[in-house]
Specification:
This protein is an alpha/beta fold and 348 residues long. The protein is built from 15 helices and eight strands. Strands 1-2-4-3-5-6-7-8 form an eight-stranded mixed β-sheet, sandwiched between helices. Strand 7, helix 12 and strand 8 form a beta-alpha-beta unit. Helix 4 crosses helix 5. The longest helix has 33 residues. The two termini are 37 Å apart.
Length: 348
């Protein structure tokens, strides 16, 4: 893309971001005036809640990637001598979003759920440029070797799935299987975003996140109330996301500076990149998609499958964007079927 087009894209992006931000800023000012100083107060959470330390999820560990200059936190379950399933979370999450899969698949696999850089208990390097996509891809590529494995099964969700798609495209020999959950294929998403007003409308937050400071303020308001709203949804699903689960996420995101690194993932999106010449995914792939996703059009699942040599799409009816947390029983069953499938084994 030429220089002029990049400038035009930048101007359009900033204009859209500002237009989206103005009503949000006005609402914040009004609520701050109505509620008072406590509106932006976040309760100190110096120690993790008990649910994060529960041994049934696994063991907490760290690994330092020296060439990357970063230390990553992860939770592991199962025998290290078994094949590795590497679980990669999305926004705004952490290793905890894979708690049900850590339990389920540790009977036959070594399951590792990592905190991406900038999240949870992993390092949070300063600066927006630290969160360019290539940095996270290299983190994950090196992580597999640092865990002592030459290959693994990659299971990812949301932003983690965005990274996973790129990993299996760039390093197919590193993975024996790929399980993507409500996370768009990079080439497909860009094309769909340009052609679908529905997806543009659903992606409004991506443009809003380009603004400095304001997104962080939104997430801090009323003691991180947005986290409760995001997970429980409009139906206020307390059964799936009880207070102890919400508090687990609030612990991590209540820490100083916890929001800027995850939001910087979005601030590093290259909106001027219109490249669609991406090689087909050779790694056998399972795409699991919650049908009630409010951020990503379900058509993205089938469109992504078309970019794979071997792919299977499974919709989880009624599940939201947080598919593996919403309905772990169904999701785990689908994953087992994929892992035990003769069709998958022969395809690989």
């Amino acid at each position: 893309m030429g220089f002029i087009q990049k400038v035009v894209t930048f101007i359009i992006l900033r204009t859209v971001s500002l237009c989206l931000s103005i009503p949000i800023i006005l609402r914040l000012v009004y609520q701050r005036w109505k509620v008072g100083k406590s509106f932006f107060y976040v309760k100190p959470r110096p120690t993790p809640p008990p649910i994060l330390s529960d041994k049934k999820w696994g063991t907490h560990s760290y690994v330092t990637l020296k060439s990357q200059g970063i230390k990553l936190h992860y939770v592991e379950a199962g025998d290290r001598n078994r094949p590795l399933i590497l679980c990669v979370h999305g926004f705004p999450e952490c290793w905890f979003s894979w708690r049900n899969q850590l339990q389920e698949f540790s009977s036959k696999y070594w399951v590792v759920a990592v905190d991406l850089r900038g999240y949870g208990s992993s390092d949070k390097p300063p600066g927006r440029s630290s969160y360019q996509v290539d940095n996270m891809i290299e983190d994950l590529r090196q992580l597999v070797g640092a865990l002592g494995k030459e290959k693994c099964i990659l299971m990812a969700h949301d932003w983690g799935a965005v990274l996973a798609w790129r990993l299996v495209i760039q390093y197919p020999d590193l993975f024996t299987g790929h399980i993507s959950m409500n996370g768009p294929h990079p080439g497909v998403f860009g094309k769909h975003l340009r052609n679908s007003f529905k997806q543009i409308r659903m992606s409004w937050y991506i443009y809003f996140f380009q603004m400095p400071w304001i997104p962080e303020l939104v997430f801090r308001a009323e003691d991180l109330a947005v986290l409760t709203q995001m997970y429980r949804g409009p139906k206020n699903d307390v059964d799936k996301y009880p207070d102890e689960v919400i508090e687990a996420y609030k612990y991590y995101f209540s820490q100083d500076g916890a929001w800027t690194p995850p939001i910087n993932y979005y601030r590093n999106i290259d909106f001027a990149d219109d490249s669609t010449k991406i090689p087909k995914v050779k790694v056998p792939t399972l795409i699991v998609w919650g049908t009630e996703d409010m951020a990503l059009d379900r058509r993205l699942a089938d469109l992504a499958a078309e970019e794979c040599v071997f792919a299977r799409v499974k919709y989880v009816e009624g599940a939201t964007h947080w598919v593996q947390q919403d309905n772990p029983k169904v999701v785990n069953k689908l994953v087992w079927e994929f892992l035990n499938s003769d069709e998958w084994i022969s395809a690989f």
